[in-house]
């Protein structure tokens, strides 16, 4: 079994799976249960400024049969008193010395307020502090949470208030509700943070009730934007993670990243690791299914590492980051085409219609080698979708819609031209990238035919 | 035999517990809940140019209606179904879906086909339960069409023509409209209520249905042709023939279709009535078509202790659908293949047994078919107190003569547009089923095609030829 233990800015945990600061980490009762079931760590639900919550709080985004592809919430930071939270944090840490107990904090944007909360957290024996600069609802209106995370100057200022007094590692949690995630990450570096975590929830309105026109979740006839999380946000989280992981300043500072946003399975977890996350935080999946999912998360991750012959989870952290590239550096001569296996094809024709109406008209329906028009063909013999490889641009769409595993594969074919990138063309022949006539001449010269 | 003995010998009602009877006569496939329907609908791949559409004789756009169920547009789903097939509610229950849409489902090969039939029922039930009328008949065009027979073919033709603005009158010889949907499909597949809801839907399109009127008896064919611009003959098959064996007249010999009809009417009146229907202890059903299977099922479920199907050919030659056969074996019905009834035996005018001969199959003839040949001296007696004949129906000769039509293998001869040799008369459904399979869904398609042919003829050709 592969070694899943990690060291995250000096915080050790037996596996990389931490509960994210959220409803599942609201109390000692919950975190004790989670640790009993094998969770490697937990980020306590944010403590700090006094709050009052509303009812209702969560809204679900379902897709087809799948409930909670994402969840949206307007719940605030912990509404239990500071005293209760601090006492329970201390209890949990005492009971679970080998697990990562991180405390998320959010207070008014004043140095003393931050100094006070840092001291209180240190007194609990917790392993680290996470600064909640991400909460997009309720707190941001009061100048906290995302209101801080969206302004790099505030971000670095508040981070330094904390780091100047804290003896514990400080993790800055970033909000995704920005046009560019890199400046806030650099601000965390500038504020001497020891680590970064991302992403917090995304601003969203999860739905409108078609019976009564109420915004979901509905609070007495009113609704508002809330924080969006769960499997549907994973691709956004992966992108932001990769941007921060690949950023030169963050890399130079050597800050580890705690990745989150839609991790539901060990497969999701592996992708976050490959794109540079050291620890992984989970919330929505637990809110949906409970703490027991930890069994498959650790087991699946370990089996995958074993199958790859990798001894420790640390070996895969960031392994795909170097592949993050720019469009301008892609090899324009690289070519793949779709191949459809006629034996496993079930004749659903989804590839045909997707290609014909949604992409590049490169799949024909064929009966006995003769192309037929599905609108008029009424023959008894089933038609088969066949890729016209000379027209196929290798877009992947057919393979994405095909419901049969392994029926459509994208195959690399020998390049028809010499390797060249857009940036290289621009450098050698700037007119080709700026002028359509020059582009047409270039295409003719190298034999590019757009049908 | 004393009168007391005769009394004792007479068939009685099952007197089954009503709860038990309820279980036995409830629709075999339960309706889908909203959640169940949504999950199943979401499983559909939404194939393009889907094989299930091609497999449906009425070309229902299956993927489209299923997608509408998945989005909770259930009314829209029902409209998609009914636009293609006004008998969509009946078909959802009685279609041999394994042979049609579900048999063609691309998920069938390596997976489980979509339950298209049950989804269709979910959608059409939704519409009928809410009494929604989605169609707006066109303004009256002043032309009148008579339809003979209020079965699936006649009703569909009438409804489609009414939508186009025709004044349509349907003449039905039975007391209730609906044809085989009302009288012939066993309760567990389609209760009369469903058939009558469908009839009501057609009525609401403006169709007049006159029941208890038999063409050739209460009104002449000549009258119809004279009074209406066009006539659609969809009166189904003729009467059930005699087996022409001794003892056929004995008390206790019944005909399968009437037997099934009685149970349907009884069920409509209530379980109490169903429990009173006379049923033998030991029942023999003659024939092995789908009607025979239905009658045997009903007999068993009504409380017969032993039900035996007697068929003169072998298991492989059975005309019943494969799934019907496996269904009825589970019902505990026994089979006597290669058995030819030769005489119904009786005592005091009541059935006591069926005398039969064992058969063997000949070598395949020129048509490849093996003929059953009696084995000499093989005569034996099957004891029974009730005999149900399910040996098919006669061809519709009476109507062919009345309208002076041509016959094709005994059925009304029609061309592809369902025209008969009489320019004003069109025909379809089982009465014109010289080709293809006799199913509710093919009857409905005939009705739709006939409506379109009649409309074309009345709007174009008739005008052109003055």
Task: Describe this entry's structure for a reader.
The complex is a heterodimer of chains A (451) and B (466). Chain A has 451 residues and is an alpha/beta fold. In chain A, 32% of the residues lie in helices and 21% in strands. Chain A contains 15 helices and 21 strands. Chain A has helices at residues 28-36, 82-95, 111-124, 146-149, 152-163, 182-190, 234-246, 248-253, 266-274, 284-289, 294-308, 350-358, 397-401, 422-428, 436-446; strands at 6-8, 11-13, 17-19, 41-48, 58-63, 66-73, 100-106, 128-132, 170-173, 195-198, 202-204, 207-208, 215-216, 226-229, 257-260, 277-282, 335-340, 363-367, 370-372, 384-387, 408-413. In chain A, helix 2 packs parallel to helix 3 (111-124). In chain B, helix 3 (34-43) crosses helix 5 and helix 10 (152-163) runs parallel beside helix 12. Chain B is globular, with a radius of gyration of 23 Å. Chain B starts with a helix and ends with a helix. Mean pLDDT of chain B is 93; it is low at 1-7. Classes of the chains: A alpha/beta (451), B alpha/beta (466).
Short description:
Chain A has 451 residues and is of the alpha/beta class. Chain A is built from 15 helices and 21 strands.
Q: How would the global form of chain B be characterised? A: globular
Taking the alpha carbons of the first and last residues of chain A, their distance comes to 53 Å
The overall pLDDT average of chain B reads 93
Poorly predicted spans of chain B: 1-7
Oligomer description = heterodimer
| Biggest interface, CB < 8 A | A-B, 16 and 17 residues
Assign an overall shape of chain A. globular
Please work out how many helical segments of chain A DSSP would assign.
15
